[in-house]
Amino acid sequence: MASIIKIKRSTTPGSVPSGGDLQAGELAVNLHDQKIFSSSDGTDILTLGGDTADTLSTARNIALSGDVVGTVSFDGSVDVTIATTIQSNSVALGTDTTGAYVESLVGGTNITVTNNAGEGATPTINLDSTVIADLKGDVYSTDGTKVLDNGTDGSDATFAGTVTGDVTGDVTGNVTGNITGNITGNVTGAITGNVSGNVTGDLTGDVTGDLTGDVTGDVTGDLTGDVTGSVTGNVTGNLTGNVTGDVTGDVTGAVTGNVTGDLTGNSAGVHTGNVTGNVTGNLTGNVTGNVTGDLTGNSAGVHTGNVTGNVTGNLNGNSSGVHTGNVTGNLTGNSSGVHTGNVTGNVTGNVTGNSSGVHTGNVTGNLTGNSSGVHTGNVTGNLTGNVTGDVDGDVTGDLTGDVTGAVTGNVTGNVTGNLTGNSAGIHTGNVAGNVTGNVTGDLKGDIFAADGTSKILDAGTDGTDAVFTGSITGGVTGNADTASALETARSIALSGDVTGTVDFDGSVGVTIAATIAANSVALGTDTVGNYASAVSGTTNEIAVTGTAGEGTSFQIGLPDDVTIGNDLIVTGAASVGGNLTIDGNLNVEGAVTYISSSTVNVDDSMLKLSANNAADTVDSGVYGKYVSAATNLYSGYYRDATDSTFKFYTGLATEPTSTVDPTATGYTLAQVDAIIDGGTY
Fold first, then answer.
1. 28-30 and 8-10: which strand pairing?
2. How many C-beta atoms surround the C-beta of residue 540 within 10 A?
3. What angle is formed at CA 227 by the lines to CA 266 and CA 262, rounded to 5 degrees?
4. How many independent structural domains does the chain possess?
5. Does residue 174 lie in a domain region?
6. Do 557 and 639 share a domain, yes or no?
7. Stretch (H or E) spanning 634
8. Is residue 586 part of a domain?
């Protein structure tokens, strides 16, 4: 039977091979359309014959020009779309467009328009400055009387009437009349009349009239009249009138009138009047009047009047008035008045008056008056008056008066008065008075009898040893400097991995007999040096018997079935009586390999030939031997290395080697019966 050749084909109407489906010179046919196709270079498709074409042999550009431009390549194979672009300045507003648009803006009277022309312009619309700032005409009242002469005749502008409404703008001149409404802007001139509304802006001039509303801005001039509202801004001038509202801003000038509201800001001037409200800010000037409210800020001036409220800030100046409230801050100046409240801060100055409150802070100056409160802080100065309460802090000066309470701190000065309470601190000075309470601390000074001359305890301050000549009725609680032995022997023991014990009283040295506890030393952790904790073999190679443990013996041998994990080299002949199973590769390096088998089974689907072909120099193929007329002949197929063509041959009289000689005797091409099918597209 002759061979059958089928070229690449399709039965689908209109089907055309795609680029790359055909190699150069390869044919394809559409059996339905009766068209033949080929390719000139392996990428294009040529139609051989026919009156129409599915594509153009050369693609063409289709372009737009004018106001709109664009281009696209078209060969007829698919539909195309042109991407268009409108040219710059090609659309005229009003001519090429529909709908309303604004071409320009025109300003009217007192209206200014800038940045008005050009593509993409952003116009700016403003009122003329003359409309906002200037009032060029005079202002008359309803009866025709001129209220504001605006100076259009060459004179200064003068306002003679009363302003009932709000004043929003700045006032530069003087205001003589009353202002009932609010003042939002700044006032540079003086205000002689009363202001009933609130003042939000700054007051630069003097205000002689009363201020009923609140003042939010700063006040530079003097406030002579009374201020009923609150003052939030800073006051640089003097406050002569009374202030009923709160003062939140700082006050630099003198305050002559009374301040009824709270004073939150700092005040640097002199306060002659009384301050009834709370003072949160700092007082730098002197305060002559009384302070009834709490004084939270610092006060650096002199207080002549009484302070009834609590003082949280520091008092740096002298205070001669009565302090009824508590003093939380530091008292730096001298205080000659009476302190009824508690003093929490430090007192640096002298306290001449009596103090019945609690002193928590340190007292550095002299305390001359009587103190019935508790002293928690240190007293560096002399205590001349009697102290009824406890003294927890240290006393550096002399205690001249009697101390009824307990003294917890150290006393460096002499104690002349009686010490009725307990004393836990160290007494460095002499104690001349009677000591009724217990003395827990050290007595470094001398102690005299009631007659003042008989020395009971010579503390050795003159260089001699301390000598006590009287009797000790109570117990002696202190520790001895040294001892030869402990009163009670103590046991010293070892625990853990090492045990042992011994009694010790300090009279002689001792030695502890130590014993290492069983199973307390871990090999490797508590020891150094090499050791084997266990012995293990290799599966199917070395067998080890025995279990790891203290004193164990291991036996090492070969298993029944030995598996060799590495290479096995046999230098002599080897014979295998049974089956031989090789899991790895079988490398046969002899010249000839004989396989005497009736059937050869190969699992691999591909048979590799010419494995050592380093170049294209040998033929690769398969051949077989047959006998014709008692002559050995050979037939087969191979790839010819000279032209890379597969060839089938027969009748070859010479057995092939690494090549097949087509010129040898009997070589002829063999007939191959097959169907050669190019497939479909």
1. parallel
2. 14
3. 40
4. 4
5. no
6. no
7. strand 631-640
8. no
Looking at the fold, whether 461 and 369 belong to one and the same domain comes out as yes
- Same domain for 461 and 372? yes
The token pair at 38 is 């080929």
Asked if 277 and 261 touch (Cβ cutoff 8 Å), the reply is: yes
Cα separation, 82 vs 63, in Å, equals 8
Question: What confidence score (pLDDT) does residue 158 get?
Answer: 61
Paired sense of beta strands 515-516 and 620-628, if any: unpaired
Q: Output the pLDDT for position 133.
A: 42
The answer to whether residues 636 and 552 belong to one domain is: no
Provide the whole-model pTM.
Answer: 0.44
Considering the domain architecture, whether residues 465 and 380 belong to the same structural domain is answered as yes
Q: Are 395 and 409 in contact (CB under 8 A)?
A: yes
**Which of 254, 206, 269, 259 has its CA nearest to residue 231?**
259
Q: Which residue is it, tokens 């030939």? A: 609
- Residues in contact with 482: Cβ distance below 8 Å, sequence separation at least 6, in sequence order: none
Residue 29: predicted pLDDT: 93
Give a yes or no: residue 572 inside a domain.
no
Q: Show the domain range for 16.
A: 7-48
Cβ distance 205 to 190 under 8 Å? yes
Of 440, 469, 498, the residue that ends a domain is 469
pLDDT attached to residue 1: 53
Cα R_g (the chain), whole angstroms: 61
DSSP structural state of residue 460: S
Which parts of the chain sit beneath pLDDT 50? 130-135, 474
pLDDT at residue 579, as a whole number: 81
Residue 336 burial (CB count, 10 A): 15
The whole-angstrom separation of Cα 630 and Cα 435 is: 153
Q: What strand order describes the sheet that includes 467-468?
A: 447-448, 455-458, 467-468
Q: What is the pLDDT of residue 71?
A: 95
- The residue among 416, 343, 419, 362 whose CA lies nearest residue 384 is 416
Does a structural domain hold residue 551?
yes
Residues shown for the chain: 681
For the segment 134-193, what is each residue's pLDDT rounded down to a tens digit?
445 666 666 777 766 666 665 655 666 666 667 777 777 777 778 887 888 788 878 887
Asked whether residue 554 falls in the same domain as residue 629, the answer is no
| 627 in the same domain as 556 | no
* Of the residues 469, 502, 522, the one at which a domain ends: 469
